[in-house]
Design brief:
The protein has 402 residues and is α/β, with parallel strands linked by helices. It has 15 helices and 15 strands. It folds into 2 domains: 101 residues, Urease, subunit C, domain 1 (Roll); 288 residues, Metal-dependent hydrolases (TIM Barrel). Strands 5-6-7-8-9-10-11-12 form an 8-stranded parallel beta sheet. A 7-stranded mixed beta sheet has the order 3-2-1-4-13-14-15, with no helix packed on it. Strand 14 and strand 15 form a beta hairpin. Helix 5 runs parallel beside helix 6, helix 6 packs parallel to helix 7 and helix 8 runs parallel beside helix 9. The radius of gyration is 21 Å and the shape is globular. Fe (iii) ion binds next to loops.
Length: 402
């Protein structure tokens, strides 16, 4: 049993608010014990038995749950700066992909990079996120497209969690792109599904993801991957409605998806299907910005239907080379019209749900003691500034790690 640690003189955004607000508690204390939140509330209501606990005065700082980046591709080889240049010269993302660039070029680089080198590169990216108060990072495979490299990516992802004080959740994304020269159906049956089984057998998979798009896979092909996930007892999520609407969102919701990600082209039927299943809409403004998209996700429909929204970086070398979740929150507000409270819920409470994590994302008794103390007075400041990191202290599992 560890001793109780008492943080005092805080403004706490518990993010526990059925009405969608911050769940603000001014002049608050948080007691941490055994890696969990033991008590939170106004100092005036502090239980007598906590009165003697060692105190850490926090000088009026804001405390929030640890931030959660619920959608990243931070394990990958190489970069795509040349493609960035091509797009600036007028080529579209789809044209670049069809010309052999795009995802497939990162696949070559990732295959060629050793596990150790991939880990070293991924750690620098994880460190950038950790420095912004992130305590959980979702990491996808999907730049291997062969069994060996998909498993290598997932092993690297797991090793990030062993090397750093951060929780890693992995998603198998074998259905990310069709390898050069391959037939999509054959690829799914002969490579993707066996790789998923092998990765699962090694304990490398927390969820199964896919990319349903004209330049990737059809709903029917994704459906086969989801059936395999169900047979293995794994939850699913999907990149859907990013560039067009092929019906992937309805399919994903029908499979009980934890989340549907991108969702720019989602319409009323998709939103209704997500509401019915309880799938989270993961908004990825970094990709929208990078690709100069104009179709915005249907935020008003999500609100009306009660579909919770999360916000991620989608950190990847092509469509979202963005290493800042605070910037993603700012963009979700500025580009998509989220309120700062929705943006913060999107990187805490709802991001936890998008990963199926019931033990975090809010500050409440019994939840994991993953917290951030910020040098700001009010929570809207976290979304408001651009390129400013006001982190003061990051607490992971009850211990200060930054
Ligand atoms: N959608 C995305 O935004 C990323 N993957 C996906 O399915 C892009 C990945 C890349 O361009 O490398
Ligand atoms: Fe993605």
């Amino acid at each position: 049993m560890s001793e109780t640690r008492l943080l005092t003189d805080l403004n706490v955004a518990t993010m526990e608010d059925a009405a969608g607000g911050y769940g603000l508690v001014p002049d608050a204390c948080i007691a941490l014990k055994d890696g969990l939140v033991h008590w939170v509330g106004p100092e005036s209501a502090l239980p007598a038995e906590l009165g003697d606990a060692p105190r850490q005065p926090c000088e009026g700082r804001l405390a929030t749950p640890g931030l959660i980046d619920c959608h990243t591709h931070i394990v990958h080889g190489g970069n795509r700066a040349r493609e960035f240049e091509m797009r600036l010269e007028g080529a579209s993302y789809e044209e670049v992909a069809r010309a052999g660039g795009g995802i497939v070029s990162t696949v070559s680089a990732t295959r060629e990079t050793s596990e150790e080198a991939l880990l070293a590169q991924a750690l620098t990216r994880a460190d950038a996120l950790i420095a912004e108060g992130i305590t959980v990072i979702e990491v996808k495979s999907g730049y291997g497209l062969d069994r060996e490299t998909e498993l290598k990516m997932l092993r690297v992802a797991r090793r990030i969690g062993a090397e750093r004080p951060v929780e890693i959740r992995t998603s198998f994304l074998g259905a990310h792109a069709v390898p050069k020269g391959a037939d999509a159906d054959d690829y799914i049956d002969e490579v993707c599904l066996p790789a998923l089984e092998a990765a699962h057998a090694e304990g490398l998979v927390d969820a199964v993801d896919g990319f349903c798009e004209g330049i990737a896979f059809t709903p029917e092909q994704i459906g086969r991957v989801f059936d395999k996930a169900a047979a293995l007892g794994l939850p699913v999520k999907l990149h859907s409605d990013q560039l067009s609407n092929l019906g992937g969102t309805v399919l994903a919701a029908g499979h009980g998806a934890l989340s549907v990600d991108h969702v720019e082209y989602s319409g009323p039927e998709d939103v209704a299907a997500m509401a019915h299943t309880g799938s989270i809409a993961v908004l990825l403004p970094g990709a929208y910005y990078t690709l100069h998209e104009t179709q915005k996700p249907p935020v008003a429909l999500f609100r009306e239907a009660g579909v919770p929204m999360a916000v991620g970086t989608d950190w990847n070398p092509g469509s979202s080379p963005m290493g800042s979740l605070l910037l993603a929150m700012n963009m979700a507000c500025t580009l998509f019209g989220l309120t700062p409270a929705e943006a913060l819920a999107g990187t805490t409470r709802n991001a936890a749900r998008a990963l199926g994590l019931a033990d975090r994302g809010v500050i409440a008794p019994g939840k994991r003691a993953d917290l951030v103390l910020w040098d700001v007075g009010e929570p809207a400041e976290l979304s408001y500034r651009i390129g400013v990191n006001p982190l003061h202290e990051r607490i992971f599992g009850g211990k200060t790690w930054l």
